[in-house]
Design brief:
The complex is a heterodimer of chains A (271) and B (284). The N terminus of chain A is likely disordered. Chain A is mainly alpha-helical. Chain A has twelve helices and no strands. Chain A is elongated and about 60 Å long. Helix content of chain B is 69%, strand content 2%. Chain B is built from eleven helices and two strands; from the N terminus they run αααββαααααααα. Chain B has a two-stranded antiparallel sheet with strand order 1-2. In chain B, a hairpin with a 5-residue loop joins strand 1 and strand 2. In chain B, helix 4 packs across helix 10 and helix 7 packs antiparallel against helix 10. Classes of the chains: A mainly alpha (271), B mainly alpha (284). Chains A and B meet through helix 3 and helix 9 of A and helix 3 and helix 8 of B.
């Protein structure tokens, strides 16, 4: 892949460090044909969660317990759902599409037949996933703000942290998806890992309410770190040391995931 | 996959049971009364996919513990639409049973059936045998109901062990869950016959998610604004949830029959529609 001579002879080939861009471009082109459907779902589904969980269920919680940790339930739950949505988008984008690009439509193989290398294939696709998460998160923050779900402008910082939360799932799942022979594994991933994380990571109720044995499990998962960081920002009195700690944890997960994903991709796609 | 070699049943005599007599009254396409062969085929093909069945059981259980223990700690008592004050876990468990019956039925009758219809071309081969379109519709829906009943039974046992089921009427919650599954499975299959590609499945989520969130599942109907209550009461999941809640909390009255009738009619309409559409798609 180190053939730098080719860049001088063929104008169309971008220089080696920028070769992830056409990979990103190809995913973007595909998205341009279906974005309407996804936008609808991404706008409507957070709106419905806000109304149902934030306002409906929230009214029960506020009446019965006077809110959670001293704030109305809406303000408690929304930063958590924000992080969870990033996880779900990340999962959707990095499970079937990655396996499909290896096994079904062989998109990756087509890319590798060009001067694009394995790192570019991985990076280009990851940048596209990050773009998806960013878009979904930005829409959610906008919609939630209209309902008064945030009490501070610090919530703007929740955008990058939520994207990191999503990527802390997307990158390791890239490694997982690249190893799958059939889509049966995704069933397990979604239902045995994602659903419990969604339900027990301190999104809907404080982790302290879990049995003592389960609490450390919540602390290990990237979702809990994203939720905690988001919540302290959205509630307006962020403990910056804690936010930095959560961010660092997410970055470590992404780095380890990246190493695994690169290994899995190389094993699967490079002969 | 080996074909069922042992014993094909003889074609039915004209004096068969009640079901086929009803079927003949309905504007229903032909079948040979051999829907169970398709069920048998599905059971065989699932021998290696049991893990998928297992995962379907755990999802509602996770929800029960998260909402029951976690949110139950925050919301001590809820006043149901029937006027009882119950712990939140009691309130939400029937809704989770109804929802999981809906989800299971819908995913089975949409994604799975679409795959078999368009990609595996399973029904083309099925119709090359004595089986007819009615057998396909009845067989697939029956298979989905068997799975649904297994999930519902397992969930009920867990909910009962967790102490969230106060009434013995809850025994009827199992047939009720099967009825919910029947209604959604029939309508889902009918809808699937109109699907053009996987992209169309966004519409399935578009129908399922609002029902999941707004069918008096997580909070009572009384909390909705008056005008919205009316809309909520039109949705099938609302009737499923209300039926299960009535049975599991022991708020039993003739009103429950309305829910039963709603779901039964919806299911029958879906079944007839699905069989006719399949006939059109596959035999003309």
């Amino acid at each position: 892949m180190g053939a730098s001579a080719s860049t001088t002879t063929r104008e169309a080939t971008p220089p080696a460090p920028a070769r992830w861009r056409p990979v990103f471009g190809s995913w973007l082109t595909a998205y341009k044909r279906t974005w309407r459907g996804s936008l609808f779902g991404r706008f409507l589904s957070p709106l419905m969660f806000l109304l149902s969980i934030g306002l409906g269920l929230g009214s029960l919680v506020d009446k019965s317990a006077g809110g959670v940790v001293g704030v109305p339930y809406l303000q408690y739950v929304v930063p958590g759902i924000l992080a969870a949505q990033a996880m779900w988008v990340a999962m959707g984008e990095s499970s079937y599409p990655v396996m499909g690009a290896i096994r079904w439509n062989m998109k990756y193989l087509a890319m590798l037949a060009t001067p694009v290398g394995i790192n570019d294939v991985l990076l280009g696709h990851l940048v596209y996933v990050a773009m998806q998460i960013t878009g979904a998160t930005a829409i959610f923050i906008g919609v939630a703000a209209l309902f008064g779900s945030f009490s501070s402008w610090w919530v703007v910082l929740a955008l990058p942290i939520t994207v990191l939360t999503g990527m802390a799932f997307a990158v390791p799942v890239f490694a997982f998806s690249a190893k799958q022979e059939t889509d049966g594994g995704f069933n397990i991933l979604f239902r045995f890992i994602m659903t419990p994380l969604f339900l027990f990571s301190g999104i809907f109720f404080p982790v302290d309410q879990l049995p003592a044995l389960l609490r450390p499990v919540a602390w290990v998962t990237p979702l809990w770190h994203g939720v905690e960081a988001n919540r302290s920002l959205a509630l307006g009195s962020p403990d910056f040391a804690a936010v930095a700690g959560h961010t660092a944890y997410l970055l470590v997960v992404i780095a380890v995931g990246g190493w695994l994903a690169r290994r899995a991709f190389t094993k699967r796609l490079v002969v | 996959m080996t074909p069922v070699a042992s014993s094909y049943p003889a074609p039915p005599s004209p004096t068969r049971g009640l079901t086929s007599r009803i079927a003949r009254v309905l504007p229903m396409p032909a079948g040979a009364g051999m829907a169970r062969i398709l069920v048998e085929r599905n059971i065989m093909s699932y021998r290696h996919g049991w893990i998928a069945i297992l995962t379907g059981f755990f999802e509602p259980v996770f929800y029960l513990f998260s909402l029951g223990i976690g949110l139950g700690g925050l919301i001590r008592v809820v006043t149901t639409d029937g006027g009882q004050s119950v712990p939140y876990a009691y309130f939400v468990a029937p809704a989770l049973l109804a929802t999981s019956a809906m989800n299971g039925a819908v995913f089975d009758s949409t994604f799975n059936v679409f795959f078999k219809l368009k990609f595996a071309k399973l029904y083309d081969s099925v119709l090359a045998t004595p089986l007819g379109p009615r057998d396909v519709a009845v067989g697939e829906i029956a298979w989905s109901l068997i799975r649904g009943a297994l999930y519902a039974a397992a969930f009920l046992v867990v909910a009962w062990l967790a102490g969230t089921v106060p009434s013995w009427w809850a025994l009827l919650a199992l047939p009720a869950a099967t009825l919910i599954g029947f209604a959604f499975s029939a309508v889902g299959m009918f809808a699937t016959t109109f699907m053009r590609s996987w992209v169309d499945f966004d519409y399935v989520n578009l129908a399922i998610q609002p029902m999941f969130l707004f069918s008096a599942t997580f909070f009572p109907l009384a909390l909705y604004p008056e005008s919205v209550q009316w809309i909520v009461q039109c949705t099938p999941l609302y009737h499923g949830v209300a039926l299960e809640r009535g049975l599991m909390l022991g708020e039993v009255g003739p009103g429950l029959l309305v829910h039963v009738a709603y779901l039964a009619v919806l299911g029958l309409l879906g079944l007839v529609g699905a069989a006719r559409r399949l006939e059109k798609l596959l035999l003309s």
